[in-house]
């Protein structure tokens, strides 16, 4: 039983802000890397933009599913830190790195053959070819990208998210320079278009992972965790625990990101204009989602710490701060999407693009629909973060699969094509799936919170 004085509501809000602001900032900065790719490719060519969106959606699904094993490191480390078990922290990080490396080796193969996959899914031949040109370079960045996620989970559990923010900001700034040089052929480099964006991403990821590795190795305060001690030693107990907690997280992430990727494929059937509009709206909404995602990470860490201390009151208050914080921010993004949709769309498109008016008008409709799911999307990810913190991952995975694939995906197809609403109908299906996920995830968390006994 926890014997330390309970934290006040003010203490919980302050602790969540101190941890959450750099986490949110790092997520936004990481997203800026992808945003600059999309924005600069949108200024280069609509075909390049549409093709790279197809490629990056596939890459992102592979990456985010692998990140599920990295996310498992966060609650494991948080609980170990709360219980004062320093050796367990190192074991979880090391086996998390092992798992994501093996995963990356397996999934790099289908990414290499992305052109055949896209053609099989009915995409246009020229877009599939450009997507393949991009992917056969970008795939080599998968491994350092997954290692970054393991290190981010480790450092976040230590409540050292500031360094994650700094590293990500440096990488995002470098990506702008690399894109400008490689996509358009500046600073003496040849014009490479989509392939240039891939090279820029690889260099950016390399800078990021090297920065974090040096920090973890050099900082005296982290020496007690001996993170680099025996990196090649197999640890059966730790790898089983990390995999057991991580695979449901991975499948939960696959369920949601796979839904958006399926939406991208379906909208691709409607032509380049619809796909370009979808691509831009997806990037805009992804930026907004980074804040609830960062708040969700706060929930995972603070719930894990409370679990390690056996502090039920602290867990309850941390949950309230996290879920209400995500809800309040979702009101901000919803307002922006409804009031300045054309301004947001124009940020990503070349003013001289012949199809600009059609793309913007389609995008405005999609942004209005996306405004409808801001609250439920923020709420479900916040509840999911709390569930991960108390090491409940299997049932949330089942709830996600039901919400997104038994309900969301079929409704997206039905509304989009048999009912004839096109891209707007596909996004309507996303709203339905996310709403069901939010309701079930919240109900699951509060049920477990009531039942916990310390």
Question: Quick one: how many beta strands?
Answer: 0
**How do the SSEs run, as a string of H and E?**
HHHHHHHHHHHHHHHH
Shape, per Cα inertia axes: globular
Output the number of helix runs.
16
**Poorly predicted tracts of residues:** none
Distance between the termini: 6 Å
Main sheet properties: none
**Percent of sequence in beta strands:** under 5%
Describe this entry's structure for a reader.
This protein is mainly alpha-helical and 454 residues long. It has 16 helices and no strands. The longest helix is centred in the middle third of the chain and has 38 residues. The radius of gyration is 21 Å and the shape is globular. The mean pLDDT is 88.
Layout of helices and strands:
Blueprint: H1 9-44, H2 46-82, H3 86-112, H4 114-120, H5 125-138, H6 142-157, H7 161-182, H8 194-218, H9 236-268, H10 272-309, H11 312-339, H12 341-346, H13 356-371, H14 374-389, H15 394-416, H16 422-451
Helix pairs in contact: 1-2, 1-7, 1-8, 1-10, 1-11, 2-3, 2-5, 2-6, 2-9, 2-10, 3-6, 3-9, 4-5, 5-8, 6-8, 7-8, 9-15, 9-16, 10-11, 10-13, 10-14, 11-13, 11-14, 13-16, 14-16, 15-16
């Amino acid at each position: 039983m926890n014997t330390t004085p309970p934290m006040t509501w003010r203490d919980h809000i302050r602790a969540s802000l101190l941890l959450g602001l750099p986490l949110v900032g790092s997520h936004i900065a990481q997203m800026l890397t992808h945003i600059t790719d999309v924005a600069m490719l949108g200024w280069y060519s609509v075909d390049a933009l549409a093709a790279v969106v197809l490629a990056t959606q596939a890459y992102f699904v592979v990456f985010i599913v692998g990140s599920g094993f990295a996310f498992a490191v966060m609650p494991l480390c948080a609980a170990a830190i709360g219980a004062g078990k320093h050796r367990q922290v190192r074991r979880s990080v090391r086996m998390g790195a092992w798992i994501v490396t093996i995963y990356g080796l397996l999934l790099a193969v289908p990414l290499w053959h992305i052109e055949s996959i896209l053609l099989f899914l009915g995409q246009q031949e020229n877009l599939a070819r450009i997507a393949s040109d991009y992917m056969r370079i970008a795939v080599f960045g998968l491994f350092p990208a997954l290692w970054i996620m393991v290190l981010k989970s480790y450092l976040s559990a230590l409540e050292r998210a500031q360094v994650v923010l700094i590293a990500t900001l440096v990488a995002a700034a470098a990506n702008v320079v690399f894109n400008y040089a490689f996509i358009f052929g500046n600073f003496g480099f040849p014009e490479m278009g989509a392939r240039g964006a891939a090279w820029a991403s690889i260099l950016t990821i390399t800078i990021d992972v090297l920065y974090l590795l040096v920090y973890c190795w050099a900082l005296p305060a982290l020496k007690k965790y001996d993170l680099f001690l025996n990196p090649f030693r197999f640890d059966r107990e730790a790898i089983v625990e990390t995999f057991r907690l991580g695979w449901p997280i991975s499948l939960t992430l696959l369920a949601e990101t796979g839904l958006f990727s399926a939406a991208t494929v379906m909208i691709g059937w409607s032509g380049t204009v619809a796909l370009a509009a979808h691509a831009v709206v997806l990037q805009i909404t992804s930026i907004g989602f980074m804040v609830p995602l960062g708040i969700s990470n706060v929930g995972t860490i603070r719930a894990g710490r409370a679990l390690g201390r056996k502090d039920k009151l602290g867990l309850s208050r941390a949950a309230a701060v996290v879920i209400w914080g995500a809800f309040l921010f979702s009101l901000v993004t919803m307002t922006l999407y409804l009031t300045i949709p054309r301004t947001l769309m124009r940020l990503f498109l070349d003013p001289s693009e012949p199809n600009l008016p059609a793309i913007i008008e389609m995008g405005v409709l999609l942004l209005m629909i996306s405004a409808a799911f801001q609250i439920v999307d923020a709420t479900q990810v916040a509840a999911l973060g709390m569930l991960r913190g108390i090491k409940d991952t299997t049932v949330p995975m089942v709830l996600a699969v039901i919400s997104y694939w038994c309900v969301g995906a079929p409704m997206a197809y039905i509304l989009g094509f048999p009912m004839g609403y096109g891209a707007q109908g596909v996004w309507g299906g996303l709203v339905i799936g996310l709403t069901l996920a939010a309701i079930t995830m919240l109900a699951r968390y509060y049920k477990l919170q009531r039942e916990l006994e310390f």
